[in-house]
Structures are given as structure tokens and as C-alpha cells.
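Comment thread on ticket #2218

A.B. wrote:
> Attaching the input chain for the structure job we discussed in standup.
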Amino acid sequence: MNIALIAHDRKKEEMVNFVIAYEEVFRHHELFATGTTGTKVMESTSLQVHRFMSGPLGGDQQIGAMVARNEMDLVIFLRDPLMAQPHEPDIIALLRLCDVQGIPVATNIASAELLVRSLGRGEFGWRDLKDKYKPGVI
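C.D. wrote:
> Ran it. Output below, let me know if you need it in another format.
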């Protein structure tokens, strides 16, 4: 599965610690990340990460393009809800694309842990559900 890792500045350490804790699960998947987040994950683990630009410089939009093409399976975006972000429209657009495409997105550690634990158990059923509940499909 293709998994995106994005973390605002004050959440980067939390993301790194999370990936370290679940490194064995992540090892079996393709990882993508915005610039600095990807660098920090690679420096702290033995994982390879496809890195895009920094979020404010277009990295969120690059990941959004993969979501729009249905090339992303899961997005973990540790947002800082207490800090205004200059690229908030890009963030909202990415989250909207995830909703449109039916891509699970975790915006905090609790939801990220639920999703990654399901990955660890081999539960990828959400990809099969995407079209199941469209109008006219029984």
C-alpha cells in the first residue's frame, strides 16, 4: 500500500516516534512524505521514503495529486490544530480529496494508530469498500 506521512513542525517528533514504533509494519509498504518529515523519518529509521517538496512549498499538493489519481491508500497527517498554517487552503484541499476518493486519513496519533494496527493485521478492506456504497450499487 502507498502511505503518505505529513506532519506540521510541532508534530514532526511525534511522527518520527510513531514511525519508529511501527517500523516493522511500515517496512512492507511504500512510504511518501513531505520534505522535512520524510528526511526525519529516514534519519531515524531504516525505511526508505519517497520525499516530495515541503508542505508549504507544494508537497501537500503533490500528495493530493496522488490521492486524486487514486494512487494513495492511506494518509497520516499529524496536524497542529493550535497553530495557524500559511498554506491552510492546500491542507483543506488535500483532506477534501481524501474524502472524495474514500482514502482514510488520520490527523492525530489515536486515529493513526488504529489505521496502522489494521495494516499490521493485514486488514486492507477499506480499498474494497470504496465503490461498494456508491448509489445504485448493491
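A.B. wrote:
> Thanks. Noting for the ticket: Helices lie at 12-21, 23-26, 35-44, 59-68, 88-101, 109-120, 126-129.
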